Amino acid sequence: MCITFLFGLFIGSFLNVCIYRIPRHESIVFPGSHCTSCGTQIRPYDLIPVVSYLVLGGKCRTCKSAISLRYPLVELVTGVLMAVQYWKWGFSLRFVLFAALTAVLIVVTAVDLDHQLILDGFVLAIAALGVLYVFMVQIPQSGLSALLDSLIGMLIGGGLFLLISAVSRGGMGGGDIKLMAALGLWFGWKMLLLLIFVAFIVGALVSAVLLFLRKKGKKDGIPFGPFIAAAAYFISICGPELLRWYFRFVM
Rounded distance, CA 62 to CA 173, Å? Predict the structure, then answer.
């Protein structure tokens, strides 16, 4: 688990590059990591996740410009979330695929918070991983019924959010609709309905806190993608147990 956490820190460092560059249509490979203020190439020993930020005091070594706290936070969060996935699934194909999903959801969250945008490339990556998950994990375990469950989940996820968008006259963005359809492939219709419920609960609680603290006004838009992503991660860890508890409770 510790190794997975350390590996996750370095994955988080790469995710920071994706979060910054992809919405700006920049290459995630060239040029190498550099200060966004002075453009100086960052030395390898200043690229150690979290540690370099602390050693440098959160400032560029060359120009002393402040480095956003988001960089070490993304690294830490990625490390922790990856470690929890490993704790849940052990070293398995399921873990590898859920870890990949987690990485994409972290990027989706940060980009949506910055730009109020969920890029189609992220949705396609989630959908592609979902197809792999269905054919390599779900079908061998549960048979072809898993494929039908996933297809219904995709239709319900996309269709329900499309309906919400139409009724609310744009209250739900196109990116949210596509993201929910892609996640339907992963979780199937039963778990997807649970995911939607969790996303709305989390969204309502966070929105209430922001309104109470006057960080947002009643007419201010709040990106919903991060709530979907948080709910998806939660369901990936606790979904089956939560669903079984629900059916035992109601029956």
Answer: 41
Which residues, other chains included, contact 75 with Cβ-Cβ below 8 Å and sequence gap of 6+? Answer: 9, 10, 12, 13, 16, 49, 50
Q: What burial letters (b/e) apply to 4-42, b meaning 16+ CB within 10 Å?
A: bbebbbebbbbbbbbbbebbeeeeeeeeebebeeeeeee
Domain boundaries, the chain: 1-89, 92-251
Task: Dump the DSSP string for 11-65.
Answer: HHHHHHHHHHHGGGT--SSSS-SB-TTT-PBPPGGG-STTHHHHHTTTB-TTT-P
Whether the per-residue pLDDT at 250 is higher than 60: the answer is no
Say what the pTM is. 0.92
Q: For residues 170 and 210, which has the higher predicted lDDT (pLDDT)?
A: 210
pLDDT confidence band for 12 (50 / 70 / 90): very high
Q: Is the pLDDT of residue 214 over 70?
A: yes
pLDDT at 251 over 60: no
3-class secondary structure per residue, 157-175: HHHHHHHHHHHCCCCCCHH
